[in-house]
Amino acid sequence: MENTYDYGMIGLGTMGCNLVLNMSDHGYSVAGFDKNTAQADKLTKLADGRKLKAFTDMELFVAALQKPRTIMLLVPAGGIVDAVIESLKPYIGEEDIIIDCGNSHFIDTQKRTDQLAKDNIHFMGLGVSGGETGARFGPSIMPGGNVDAYNRIVPMLKDVAAKVNAVPCTAYMGNGAAGHYVKMVHNGIEYALMQMIAETYHLLKKYAGLNNDELQDVFSHWNKGKLQSFLIEITAAIFLQKDELTSSMLIDMIADTAHQKGTGAWMSQDAMNTGSPIPAIDAAVSARTLSSLKKERIAASLILKGPPAETLTGDKNVFIAEMENALYAGFVLTYAQGLAMLKSSSDFYKYDTDITTVASIWRGGCIIRAAMLEDITETYTKEPDIKNMLMDKYFSEAINNTQAALRSIVQKGAALGIPLPALAAALVYFDAYRNDWLPANLIQAQRDFFGAHTYERTDKEGTFHTEWNATVQ
User: Which of 158, 225, 284, 434 is most buried by a 10 A CB count?
Assistant: First the structure.
């Protein structure tokens, strides 16, 4: 029994169990651990002749692993990760690897990496995207940390990852907590794309008057064109799902309050820290928070009045085509914001993350996989040092050709009183980024006036302060 299994997996919930089965499919022997006996029993039943074994005793579990040991964790982020590490410490030693495959905060991952390195134990943050199906049949995998530890596990990662044109959707993301940082950015982009799709749904349903069958047709058609993506594909499928409890469609029975686990908010918080503008992602995070204020929104709807309700009287197909272009522009601007932040943050944290590689491994397996990522990968391959993909000829032309539709849709939403926070924020980003003059000079003057914070001039180098002569009561 001792030292016979290639890998260990702690946490045998759906994601952990599916990843274990994926590894087994590719010839790896895996020992699983879960203190929940029912979860351990589930893996035992699924083993069915595979070289898998489930444990509920930590010491026996570790003893079953080949040395140096490689132990993966798929447990909830936060204190549980630290508790698992503490329970492992008495049984592991030098050169062992602990891999956190959950959605941990990159700051926590860096602390754990530094702390365990003192005992010559490697800790790696490994982002996994693709949900339950991805874990079972091929996710996008974003590993970061010690490169020697990475090189020990890379054959397995390439085997279990999704493939695009036979190329595995996994690669080294960089030093330290780079793996979890890249996954955080992935999730932030995901927030904005989902919010933009929801805003599109809002307009198509409330203004254009499309029913669920028509909505399914629209999204299914869009998934065959420039918006082709996993999120558009599943959106089309959602409108076909019947409710098992009523005669209605399920989408109409789901409460309009969205939840979040924190990764989007972490990205917004770190964007402030690193000085990265990501307004579309910020707006998406805020939109989820606003949606959760259901009781307040119901009360406000009785008091606060917007413009009168209006329905589309023109050609629906013309409006749908404009909506497609607006959503495409929103998608482009979202990827641009997220990847620009990732590039600048990699420099800030010294991760040495290669953006071309990131875009490439997002092409398959992950939640934000989309046809657009082929073009993004090509852009960064041609110009790896480009600071923002909007400066590339392909995407500058794409956004120039669709910005009028985005502008029109945002105006329509404002006129109707239909909130389009992420689409509107994307347009604001585009207009601010393309302007060679912004009114920040007035802000600098105000800061110097009330706080002597100094300012820079247009005609000479350095910082300056003025004793402002105005008298303010």
Answer: 284
Q: Is 210 helix (H, G, I), strand (E, B) or coil?
A: coil
Catalytic residue of the set 183, 226, 343, 412: 183
- CATH entry, 183-434, from 1.20.1000.10, 1.10.1040.10, 3.30.720.210, 3.30.70.560: 1.10.1040.10
The runs of H, that is alpha helices, within 362-434 are 372-382, 393-416, 421-434
Cα distances (Å, whole numbers) of residue 455 to 40, 419, 449, 452: 63, 37, 10, 9
Q: Which residues contact 120 (CB under 8 A, 6 or more apart)?
A: 94, 95
With a CB cutoff of 8 Å and minimum separation 6, the contacts of 314 are: none
Instruction: Report the C-alpha gap between 22 and 335 in whole angstroms.
Output: 30
Distance of alpha carbon 144 from alpha carbon 179, whole angstroms: 4
Average pLDDT, the chain: 95
Which residue is associated with the tokens 């936060």? 78
Determine phi and psi for 212, rounding to 5 degrees.
Answer: -65, -40
Query: CATH 3.40.50.12780: does it fit domain 7-176?
Result: no
Q: Write down the catalytic residue from 53, 67, 132, 190.
A: 190
- Our answer to whether residue 387 is catalytic in this structure is no
Class of residue 450 by CB neighbours under 10 A (exposed 0-12, middle 13-18, buried 19+): exposed
Cα distances (angstroms) measured from residue 65 to each of 30, 71, 245: 8, 9, 47
Q: Do domains 7-176 and 439-473 have the same CATH topology?
A: no
Residue at token pair 């997996």: 9
pLDDT value for 262? 77
pLDDT in tens, 26-85: 999 999 999 999 999 999 999 888 999 999 999 999 999 999 999 999 999 999 999 999
Q: Where are the beta strands (DSSP E) in 11-63?
A: 30-33, 52-55
59 as an active site residue: the answer is no
- Evaluate whether 65 touches 8 at the Cβ level (below 8 Å): yes
Residue 193 carries which side chain, given as an amino acid letter?
L
Report the distance separating Cα 90 and Cα 123, nearest Å.
Answer: 16
For the chain, the maximum distance between any two Cα atoms, rounded to a whole number of angstroms, is 85
CATH of region 439-473: 1.20.5.320
What's the half-sphere exposure (Cβ side, CA atoms, 13 Å) at 333? 31
Say how far apart CA 246 and CA 472 lie, in whole Å: 66
State mean pLDDT over 130-134.
91
Question: 137-171 burial, b if ≥16 CB within 10 A, otherwise e?
Answer: ebbbbbbbbbeebbeebbebbbbbbbebeeebbbb
User: Where do the domains of the chain lie?
Assistant: 7-176, 183-434, 439-473
365 vs 88: CA distance, rounded Å: 31
